[in-house]
Amino acid sequence: MISSKIEKNIAIASLSEKSKLNILNAEEVKNALTLLLRDYNQLVFNMDGVIFIDSTGFGTLVTIFKRARENDKIFKICGVSPEAMELIKITKLDKVFDIHSDEATCLQSFDN
Hints:
The chain is α/β, with parallel strands linked by helices. Helix content is 41%, strand content 26%. The protein is globular and about 30 Å long. The mean pLDDT is 95.
């Protein structure tokens, strides 16, 4: 469900079964991201291919964001499709999350 890799001591996670972040996979995604956040200070969630997010999926993203902040860690999102970005903007979470267009740009942002 979640694949991950490490680059420059930054954990990068993505959905292996792409297209939706919803009630069917949100708990598993939250658990996987929580484990990565426990072991790394910087976490990127690459949403490439995700075109739909429901309220449970948004809850997962907010939970991870809050856990990162509470533990002085960094959580960023990248690769958001136009469809998913529209949903993120409707919920005004684009003002909350640090969102980057692609993985390379996101990784470079850690150097700043």
